[in-house]
């Protein structure tokens, strides 16, 4: 084969991927977990590493899991939105600190404000893989029975909160 | 009326660009000299209409014409004049207009500085640039017209994104675009040379100064972006491996490889096909960057205008431009023969090594940037790629590159002797290793990483200086000998020393930075790295389109006053967006950086973030030195000489 064709062929492969990428909205990934039980885990708390947290503790409550990291620029943009969310609404927001350094994560929270009821740290990122975390930030809404009901990829905006998350939480509160 | 004039000028510019991309090209291949002669005037008239369109949009911003949708979305009556002007390229539609204008400016510049270039070649170059321009103008007019009107003009605009209301970010995009688009010239030369069937050393010589100038803009543009992120995002970082940052870094890496490979092609007539390929890649990556930023296939804070419909258009455009170029390459490259041979131990090999590393780095960065997208397309989207990946790939790859910088520049073409180099560089090697190992002892803590970084920097500096010294020795060490060394050699040496300065900056900043988050009450002191930070309190202030909380701190060392720092926390009124304005006392060997957090409890206490960042300025200083080196190389006498000589075999300059 003509060696000079290699760059062209490589480019065609790239174009195919880009074209597939275009048909998908990176902010709205279908999660295979929607409608299924939230993957379980048992991870140390960010502020008290000797204690752990597991999704079972939230049975009977509708809650939000927000995955973030201090190295993630988009999370910064999102953080103020989350601060406002917990200030203006009664919600159970749990933070999952993903592939991060504990020191950096704590500093981030003390600097930018801590909207989370609890923060857990997933230093290795293994739980993130179980949850199908694709890129931080990501946000999940889990119902009272521990079923994942919503997955949001990318920063949550005020509009998402008003139009998607709050209505869903209200609906979940009514469910038994 | 004026916005319609701008819109009309854009349409005219498109029509002219179509003519520009067809007639000179056909003229050159059919030998119709009157069509070939059209290249210059058409390109210049096209530039004129682009300027009219740009001026029309700028005018709409200055006079607050909110009947124009783009102005209403990105301006406000309270917005200061400087930012009303920078808002012209602050969002999607306007930045495209700026892109297209920049392309026309480069084309215009090519028609001015082209005296040494044969008319046929120039005609082809101008046509290729015209084709790119057609693509961008069509894109703008069909999907992103900046002159779209609103039926009902709002009384007030939605204001510019507060992140962009900053001097650094006002000038960062223009610099970056000048660089991105500048690679279109080298690209056009490569395509024109392939179309004309003459891939000799001449096209490399013509491309070299253009590539160098584009590279300077890109270097400074990226550097400005990093500087902006440092003082504006308020958390002391200077590079985040964000997809959009990578999009600008990729063309830089390949562009750097291109500059070096052009040198081999020009001087030795070898690497021809490879150089053509790099020229195509450098510009393709600029276009790909535009695609990634504009199409929304990747999530990023920078991606301010994402729209899949636009993405489809850009993808088709990419296929035509890049696919077409690579097809042409596949057709022409087999006929390119490099007749010159070189020995394994030679400058050619060193530069080949440089090229391979830079391209591998670029490929790894590209892979990391596209990885989420690739996995998603394959249906296994489970992985996120963050700085950990990039750092662990980037650092080990660049260390051998840094080791070779000075040596490669010193090696002789064709064949060199290891003994000669060892003799010339032995002492430098010993000094670098010893000094690198000893210097971190001065710091409060010894880090082996710092020793390696310093070793590399000293090694680059000493070997570069030694290379310069040997040049002078050969010429007899007199004052005149200083002038006989070509300016481009000085340029190269200075740029390489810029790399050394840059490495000192990143190494020492990364290793020795210290940062603390503290709760401070008015009157409270905090000592870090010998600096005493005293918090005096915070108060409210009113800005033109924001309200701010301003903190007041004084810094002293050993009782000596050093600086008064006033970090701010602003709320922009229109978009209700909070922004942190850090206060920085910049210094040659350290920056003191203070950012205001949140108010903490009664008594005026605040959480304050304090940083001492040693040598961080050296990062940007290094890039400025690289830019100066590039400028010297681009303005070398032989390029100017070549222009005077008119094109002929005589312009072959030996060096």
Condensed summary:
The complex is a heterodimer of chains A (176) and B (655). Chain A has 176 residues and is an alpha/beta fold.
Give an account of the 3D structure.
Chain A has 176 residues and is an alpha/beta fold. Chain A has one domain: Glutaredoxin. Chain A contains 5 helices and 7 strands. Chain A has helices at 6-23, 73-88, 102-112, 126-130, 158-174, and strands at residues 43-44, 52-53, 63-68, 93-98, 118-122, 138-142, 148-153. In chain A, α2 (73-88) links the parallel β3 (63-68) and β4 (93-98). The longest helix of chain A has 18 residues, at 6-23. The termini of chain A are far apart. The mean pLDDT of chain A is 82. Chain B is α+β, with helices and mostly antiparallel strands and 655 residues long. Chain B folds into 4 domains: 1-162, no CATH class; 166-359 and 379-388; 417-512 and 618-625, no CATH class; 515-615, no CATH class. Chain B is 63% helix and 11% strand. Chain B has helices spanning 2-30, 33-36, 39-62, 69-74, 81-86, 92-112, 119-143, 167-196, 201-232, 243-268, 272-295, 308-332, 347-378, 387-410, 418-438, 448-474, 479-484, 487-512, 617-634, 637-645, and strands at 514-520, 525-528, 531-542, 546-557, 560-565, 568-572, 577-581, 583-585, 590-599, 606-614. In chain B, the strands form 2 sheets. In chain B, strands 2, 3, 4, 5, 6 and 7 form a 6-stranded antiparallel beta sheet that branches. Chain B has a 4-stranded antiparallel beta sheet with strand order 1-10-9-8. In chain B, α3 (39-62) runs antiparallel to α6 (92-112), α13 packs antiparallel against α14 (387-410) and α14 packs antiparallel against α18 (487-512). Chain B is flat and about 85 Å long. At the A-B interface, α1, α2 and α3 of A face α11, α12, α13 and β9 of B.
């Amino acid at each position: 084969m003509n060696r000079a064709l290699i760059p062209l062929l490589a480019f065609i492969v790239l174009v195919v991927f880009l074209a597939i990428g275009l048909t998908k909205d990176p902010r709205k990934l279908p999660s295979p977990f929607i409608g299924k039980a939230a993957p379980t885990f048992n991870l140390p708390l960010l502020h008290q590493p000797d204690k752990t947290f597991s999704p079972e503790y939230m049975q009977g409550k509708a809650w939000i899991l927000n995955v973030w990291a201090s190295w993630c620029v988009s999370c910064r943009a999102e953080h103020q939105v989350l601060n406002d969310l917990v200030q203006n609404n009664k919600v159970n927001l749990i933070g999952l600190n993903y592939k991060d350094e504990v020191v950096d994560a704590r500093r981030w929270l003390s600097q930018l404000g801590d909207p989370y009821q609890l923060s857990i740290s997933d230093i290795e990122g293994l739980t993130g893989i179980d949850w199908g975390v694709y890129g931080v930030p990501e946000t999940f809404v889990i119902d009272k029975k521990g079923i994942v009901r919503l997955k949001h990829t990318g920063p949550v905006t005020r509009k998402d909160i008003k139009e998607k998350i709050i209505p869903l939480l209200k609906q979940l509160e009514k469910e038994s | 009326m004026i916005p319609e004039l701008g819109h009309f000028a854009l349409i005219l510019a498109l029509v002219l660009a179509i003519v520009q991309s067809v007639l000179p090209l056909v003229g050159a291949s059919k030998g119709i000299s009157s069509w070939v002669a059209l290249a210059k005037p058409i390109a210049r008239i096209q530039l004129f209409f682009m300027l009219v369109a740009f001026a029309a949009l700028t005018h709409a911003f200055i006079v607050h014409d909110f009947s124009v949708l783009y102005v209403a979305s990105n301006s406000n009556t309270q917005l200061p004049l400087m930012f009303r002007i920078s808002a012209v390229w602050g969002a999607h539609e306007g930045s495209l207009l700026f892109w297209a204008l920049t392309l026309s400016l480069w084309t215009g510049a090519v028609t001015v500085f082209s005296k040494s270039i044969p008319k046929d070649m120039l005609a082809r170059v101008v046509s290729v640039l015209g084709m790119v321009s057609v693509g961008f103008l069509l894109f703008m007019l069909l999907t992103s017209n900046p002159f779209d009107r609103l039926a009902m003009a709002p009384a007030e605009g939605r204001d510019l994104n507060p992140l962009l209301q900053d001097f650094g970010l006002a000038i960062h995009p223009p610099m970056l675009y000048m660089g991105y688009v500048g690679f279109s010239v080298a690209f056009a030369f490569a395509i024109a040379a392939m179309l004309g069937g003459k891939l000799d050393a001449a096209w490399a010589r013509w491309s070299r100064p253009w590539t160098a100038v584009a590279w300077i803009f890109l270097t400074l543009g990226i550097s400005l972006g990093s500087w902006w992120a440092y003082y504006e995002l308020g958390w002391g970082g200077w590079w985040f491996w964000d997809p959009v940052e990578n999009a600008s870094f990729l063309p830089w890496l390949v562009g750097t490889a291109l500059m070096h490979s052009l040198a081999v092609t020009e001087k030795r007539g070898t690497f021809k096909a490879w150089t053509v390929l790099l020229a195509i890649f450098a510009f393709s990556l600029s276009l790909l960057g535009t695609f990634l930023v504009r199409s929304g296939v990747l999530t990023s804070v920078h991606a301010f205008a994402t729209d899949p419909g636009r993405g489809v258009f850009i993808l088709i455009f990419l296929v035509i431009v890049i696919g077409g170029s690579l097809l042409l390459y596949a057709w022409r490259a087999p006929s390119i023969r490099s007749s010159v041979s070189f020995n394994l131990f030679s400058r050619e090999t060193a530069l080949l090594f440089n090229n391979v590393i830079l391209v591998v780095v670029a490929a790894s960065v590209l892979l990391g940037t596209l990885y989420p997208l690739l996995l998603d397309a394959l249906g296994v989207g489970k992985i996120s790629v963050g700085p950990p990946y990039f750092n662990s790939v980037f650092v080990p790859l660049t260390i051998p590159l840094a080791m070779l910088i000075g040596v490669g520049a010193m090696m002789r073409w064709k064949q060199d002797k290891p003994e000669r180099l060892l003799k010339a560089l032995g002492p430098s090697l010993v000094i670098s290793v010893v000094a690198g190992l000893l210097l971190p002892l001065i710091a409060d803590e010894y880090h082996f990483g710092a020793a390696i970084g310093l070793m590399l920097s000293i090694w680059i500096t000493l070997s570069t200086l030694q290379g310069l010294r040997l040049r002078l020795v050969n010429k007899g060490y007199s004052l005149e000998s200083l002038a006989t060394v070509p300016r481009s050699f000085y340029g190269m040496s200075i740029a390489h020393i810029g790399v050394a300065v840059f490495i000192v900056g990143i190494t020492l900043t990364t290793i020795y930075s210290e940062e603390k988050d503290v709760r401070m009450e008015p009157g409270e002191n905090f000592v870090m790295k010998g600096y005493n930070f005293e918090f005096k309190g915070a108060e409210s202030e009113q800005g033109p389109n924001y309200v701010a909380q301003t903190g007041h701190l004084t810094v002293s060392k050993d009782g000596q006053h050093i600086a008064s720092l006033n970090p701010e926390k602003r709320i922009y009124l229109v978009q209700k967006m909070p922004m942190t304005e850090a206060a920085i006392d910049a210094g040659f060997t350290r920056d003191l950086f203070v950012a205001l957090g949140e108010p903490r409890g009664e008594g005026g206490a605040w959480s304050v973030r304090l940083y001492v960042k040693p040598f961080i300025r050296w990062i940007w200083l290094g890039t400025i030195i690289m830019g100066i080196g590039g400028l010297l190389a681009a303005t070398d006498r032989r390029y100017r000489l070549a222009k005077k000589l008119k094109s002929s075999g005589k312009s072959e300059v030996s060096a």
